[in-house]
Design brief:
heterodimer; A: 330 residues; alpha+beta; Alpha-Beta Plaits; four-stranded mixed beta sheet; 10 helices; globular; B: 280 residues; mainly alpha; 3% strand; binds iron/sulfur cluster
Chain lengths: 330, 280
């Protein structure tokens, strides 16, 4: 019964969120859910509302995510090939229940920060960055950003080299060895599994459904909606609580906005930072942004080459002409 | 036309300064692209490349990206310049001709001692074929690389289909480029090709080598250069239109390059030049 009620709450607030939000934006809510694949979406995570589901065994968002993705990873092979020469194998298949950090079997967890005697609960998952290096420099384009903002790894194309994890400022993607396409290519020398992370429940969005975590949250701490509106709501709530926003500028901007009454400076300082439990550094930079000017020069290079060819050809033609004339005259 | 015979120095100018700059701009940037392209794959940590002194940065994908972009700028500009400049000038020396495939096999056979090498143009038939292969490879890399670059700056959410095409074209032609580079190095390693290596560094090759191997080419240059020499000799110039005369003159010139004539020429070489040549 309770499950049903939760479901209804989120269903009613589908993408246009709470009554307050509707009042704020003045936009009428769409009556029917439709596939959210083109419109840019954002998620709002309100830390003033999240209580870590203290009354439950497992936070509802985590449980929902686990349930949705429980069959996502195929059966891991019996003996995982040992990569050469560095022998790193990451196998979480026997620890699928771990829920307090990111693993290939757990895309969201609740990070706890003890601040001035109070516990702040921070649901953590992929931020779905606006220009995510994890996707743009994936050597196989297995990881890609969708029009709706979701950053999705195609597990059939991923070789598990973990480049995405290296370039993500929060090291979000997690590797499971012994699965994926690399097994069929050169498993000893190339690739090492598949990288997994939150995909914003893109398949559910396509069906017009809410992401599992958003739908499951009993306190509506998680909301999803059109980007502009979520940004408005985030600003409004932050102002109202005299609080802070995280994710707006971090890593060049993201599709996930945290709103918190406590500063993220403080949250970042207090949380345990371990593998699978990333930092929350405010103003974390998008390193690739600094390469953009050079990239623009590359885009201009063909025009430059062409112009130089034309100009030089013109000059040498003229020189030849002048020479010929001189010869004729002399 | 930069090509010129310097009889007294025993040299033929084979490449203009511009061509040398083009070649080396593309070669050096291409090598950097190859290396940083490899470093864009997650190999540096796995294969312990990071422990190699001076390569500590190899696992940092963003550093490699800076270098990859910088080299791509030179590579793309030089490649497009090359294509259009020489295209506009109608230079066809490196465009494959009919029969190049068969001729290149004959040349390759002769390199391993089977049969005799036919008289060659400025470029070997396999050079012309390799040139087209390399040009196509480079163009595919440039085109797909530009799509990927555009995506990195402006369109991280571009169509996944287009992106997958660009990515796989880039990856496949990267492998072909690597193989082409190895083949290029292998060609240089072959002894008979050594005299040409000097050409790509200094622009000139030995005249006796060129007469011996690239006789068709030297022949062409001589047809252009022969006139001034006649003037010096104070031989009266033919008053008629020189074109048919030239044509009439070509068969004897072609005869000139028969084997023993060349050997004769080499023997007549002044002592000091011969010594210089031996030193090489
Ligand atoms: S976000 Fe919602 S479901 Fe998740 S822990 Fe917080 S209150 Fe629970
Ligand atoms: S948070 Fe990390 S994994 Fe997620 S989109 Fe951003 S860079 Fe990629
Ligand atoms: S959006 Fe979906 S995949 Fe991502 S954390 Fe929520 S339930 Fe998991």
């Amino acid at each position: 019964m309770k499950e049903k009620k939760d479901f209804n709450i989120s269903r009613r607030s589908f993408l246009k969120i709470s009554a307050g939000a509707a009042a704020l934006t003045g936009v009428s809510l769409p009556k029917t859910a439709f596939a959210r694949t083109e419109e840019q979406l954002s998620t709002l995570i309100d830390l003033s509302l999240c209580n870590g589901c203290a009354d439950r065994q497992k936070p509802a968002c985590v449980g929902a995510c686990k349930a949705i993705n429980k069959d996502k990873i195929p059966q891991v092979v019996g003996n995982i090939p040992e990569p050469w020469p560095r022998k790193t194998i990451e196998d979480w298949s026997k620890k699928q229940d771990v829920a307090n950090r990111l693993t290939p079997y757990n895309f969201i967890y609740v990070h706890k920060a003890q601040i001035e005697g109070k516990t702040i609960f921070v649901p953590r998952r992929c931020m779905h960055c606006d220009n995510p290096a994890c996707a743009t420099i994936c050597p196989f384009s297995a990881n890609s950003k969708k029009k709706n903002g979701a950053v999705v790894i195609d597990q059939d194309l991923c070789f598990g080299g973990a480049k995405c994890k290296d370039v993500c400022p929060w090291e979000i993607p997690q590797r499971q060895s012994g699965v994926g396409i690399y097994l069929h290519v050169l498993p000893d020398f190339m690739g090492n599994g598949v990288m997994y992370k939150c995909d914003l429940c893109n398949d559910r969005l396509k069906e017009g459904k809410l992401p599992g975590c958003v739908e499951a949250c009993p306190r509506q701490a998680l909301l999803i909606g059109p980007r502009k509106e979520i940004e408005k709501i985030a600003d409004q709530r932050a102002r109202a609580m005299n609080g802070y926003i995280y994710g707006k500028t971090e890593n060049g901007g993201t599709a996930t906005l945290y709103v918190s009454p406590v500063s993220f400076e403080l949250i970042n300082k207090t949380i345990d930072k371990k593998p699978g439990q990333p930092n929350m550094k405010p103003q974390i930079v998008r390193r690739m942004a600094a390469t953009d000017p050079l990239a623009k020069a590359v885009l201009a290079a063909p025009a430059l080459g062409l112009a130089a060819a034309g100009a030089l050809n013109w000059f040498s033609r003229r020189k030849e002409l002048v020479k010929k004339e001189e010869k004729n005259n002399g | 036309m930069a090509e010129k015979i310097l009889e007294e120095k025993n040299l033929v100018i084979r490449h203009s300064a511009l061509e040398l700059i083009e070649h080396w701009a593309m070669a050096i940037s291409g090598l950097i692209l190859l290396l940083t392209g490899i470093f864009e794959l997650p190999v540096a940590k796995r294969y312990y490349i990071i422990v190699v002194p001076g390569l500590g940065w190899s696992a940092d994908f963003i550093t490699s990206l800076y270098l990859h972009y910088a080299a791509a700028f030179v590579f793309t500009a030089a490649g497009i310049f090359h294509l259009f400049y020489h295209g506009l000038r109608g230079e066809k020396g490196m465009i494959p001709q009919k029969g190049d495939l068969a001729a290149s096999i004959t040349v390759m056979k002769s390199l391993i001692g089977i049969g005799k090498e036919p008289p060659l143009h400025k470029y070997l038939p396999e050079q012309r074929l390799a040139y087209v292969g390399m040009a196509v490879t480079m163009l595919m890399l440039i085109a797909s690389g530009l799509v990927k670059t555009y995506k990195n700056i402006y369109a991280p959410d571009m169509s996944h289909m287009v992106l997958l095409w660009a990515t796989w074209i880039h990856n496949i032609f990267f492998v072909l480029f690597f193989l082409a580079f190895l083949a290029h190095m292998a060609a240089i390693a072959l002894r008979p090709n050594w005299p040409m290596v000097r050409g790509i560094f200094t622009g000139a090759v030995r005249l006796d080598y060129a007469r011996h191997r690239h006789s068709l080419w030297v022949n062409e240059i001589e047809q252009v250069q022969i006139v001034p020499r006649t003037v010096i000799d104070a031989t009266p110039l033919p008053t008629a239109d020189p074109a048919p005369d030239d044509e009439a003159a070509s068969p004897p010139v072609a005869e000139l390059i028969s084997e023993d004539k060349i050997d004769g020429k080499v023997e007549q070489m002044p002592e000091d030049e011969k010594a210089a040549q031996d030193k090489e």
